[in-house]
Write a structure and sequence with these properties.
Layout: H1 12-24, H2 29-54, H3 74-86
Length: 89
């Protein structure tokens, strides 16, 4: 696959932060941009395939509001639910 040189216009502060991030994770900016573009392309392809499997062309997004337990730790509540599912008294 051949490479091309391109120009883009982005917010100056955002670009500086992006370059700092690339440096922190040990990647050059071009490689990181390519990775992000590949991830986006894969996500679009996967979404399209899932919609086709579901027999729908309508895009929907699940929206919910997390709730806080009235008492106790969440981990304790999850353990109780798992035990109930497993039939453990």
């Amino acid at each position: 696959m051949g490479k091309i040189k391109t120009s883009i216009y982005v917010d100056r502060e955002l670009w500086a932060k992006f370059k700092e991030h690339a440096l922190r994770i040990g990647k050059d900016v071009s490689s990181l941009l390519e990775d992000i573009m590949k991830d986006e392309a894969i996500e679009q392809t996967l979404s399209k395939a899932l919609l086709e499997l579901a027999g729908s062309e309508i895009y929907c997004e699940i929206d919910f509001k997390p709730i806080k337990p009235k008492e106790g730790l969440v981990s304790e509540l999850i353990r109780v639910m798992r035990d109930e599912r497993a039939g453990i008294p």
